[in-house]
Amino acid sequence: MKPLINEFFVMESRMRIGVLTGGGDCPGLNAVIRASVRKGIKEYGHEFLGFRDGWKGPLEGLTMPLSIETTRGILPRGGTILGSSRTNPFKIEGGVEKIKDNLAKAGIDALIAIGGEDTLGVATKLDSLGVKVIGVPKTIDNDLNNTDYTFGFDTAVNIAVEAIDRLHTTAESHHRALIVEVMGRHAGWIALHAGLAGGATCILIPEHKFSVDKVCQWVESRFKSHYAPIIVVAEGAIPQDGDMAVKDQSVDSFGHVKLAGIGDWLAQEIEAKTGTEARTSVLGHIQRGGSPTAFDRVLATRFGLHAITAAHEGDWGTMVALHGTDIVRVPLASATEKLKLVPIERYKEAEIFFG
Ligand code: F6P
Predict the structure, then answer these.
(1) Which of 114, 231, 233, 239 has a CA 20 to 30 Å removed from the CA of 136?
(2) Domain definitions of the chain by residue range
(3) Which ligand 1 atom lies nearest to the CA of residue 236?
(4) Is 237 in the pocket of ligand 1 (CB under 6 A)?
């Protein structure tokens, strides 16, 4: 007979749970916080404390109250009421001990860490060092492993599609090639989805090096119709004979370089090789700002609800994830095992529309 309570999980009694959001912000973060807090207090009677600015919060003891009252009205709000940062405690002398001390001082039993590759990478290491953690996946880039989608991605894609729709009309009026540079450091999900939905002339993604000559052929063939070309390029896309376009040589505490310039570089190449005018619009942080779409609000809310239940059941070291339409729990470590890149077959589906 099936046990009434899953025997693998020890139901935790009342706990004081810390919540933090780390890495690049993302529409839907507030919806996760609200859902965890609401269910945690109403259904389980837990208490919450917000840690400010990612891992900087527990590292420096920066906190804010989290209650049903302080999380009211935040569902549609972009950004994160907790603030965020790219602080890496493993790059700071004594960082882990400081975090453990501050959690103990604040009476925190467990943490819900909402973040992407870097934040969840830290959470995985802390879990192995005895900190009780549940992970919630977030990134507009949709490149986290072991979840079909992350919230924020749908919002970013919709923002990019709106921009592409607008750029079509001005490109046609001026008989210009317009390039839209979207986010996507290593994975081209935003470019692929926005380009497909926006009817792009071609889509350039980091997973698949591109030929500038081929792009110019597509541009010229599109000009032969009465439409003007729109090229969607991910910031991390790489030309066959070149390298990723970086702003400078500086890196953040997780070793990431700042990407910038692939769109402008491509515009110059197109002008030089085809003799037609080309311009670039870099969407940048606009893709991360503002209100989440309904899809992202629902996904983020469901992640928040399931994360607090995972904490309540003491299922530490897990991450909530979307598999199909179900929210499941997967090992936290699996989120950062590898990046979820665009498979070549998915890119090939889009190629039929190029040119
Ligand atoms: O990781 C999410 C992301 O949006 C990437 O696509 C982008 O390269 C990066 O963040 C930019 O982050 P920031 O400028 O905030 O450091």
Answers:
(1) 233
(2) 2-151+292-335, 153-289
(3) 8
(4) no
pLDDT at 3: 44
Residue nearest to ligand 1 atom 15, measured at CA: 24
Q: Which residue is closest in CA terms to ligand 1's atom 1?
A: 24
The answer to whether residue 241 is catalytic is: no
Query: Which pLDDT score, from 0 to 100, does residue 1 have?
Result: 40
pLDDT < 70 stretches in the chain = 1-12
Q: If you measure from the C-alpha of residue 189 to the centroid of ligand 1, how many angstroms do you get, rounded to a whole number?
A: 14
Residue 158 has what pLDDT?
98
Q: 2-151+292-335, which class in CATH?
A: alpha beta
pLDDT at 14: 93
What pLDDT, on the 0 to 100 scale, is given for residue 251?
Answer: 82
> What is the whole-number distance in angstroms between the Cα of residue 342 and the centre of ligand 1?
18
**pLDDT for position 283:** 98
pLDDT tens digits, one per residue of 188-216: 999 999 999 999 999 999 999 999 999 99
Give the distance (Å) from ligand 1 centre to CA of residue 140.
9
User: Which mutation among 88, 183, 252, 342 tests ligand 1's pocket best, with the greatest number of atoms within 8 A of CB?
Assistant: 183
HEC string of the chain equals: CCCCCCCCCCCCCCCEEEEEECCCCCCCHHHHHHHHHHHHHHCCCCEEEEECCCCHHHHHCCEEEECCCCCCCCCCCCCCCCCCCCCCHHHCCCHHHHHHHHHHHCCCCEEEEEECHHHHHHHHHHHHCCCCEEEEEECCCCCECCCCCCECHHHHHHHHHHHHHHHHHHHHHHCCEEEEEECCCCCCHHHHHHHHHHCCCEEECCCCCECHHHHHHHHHHHHHCCCCCEEEEECCCCECCCCCCEEEEEECCCCCEEECCHHHHHHHHHHHHHCCCEEEEECHHHHHCCCCCHHHHHHHHHHHHHHHHHHHCCCCCEEEEEECCEEEEEEHHHHCCCECCCCHHHHHHHHCCCC
> Can you give the pLDDT at residue 11?
64
How far, in Å, is the centroid of ligand 1 from the Cα of 285?
Answer: 8
Does the domain formed by 153-289 have CATH 3.40.50.460? yes
Check if 2-151+292-335 and 153-289 are the same fold.
yes
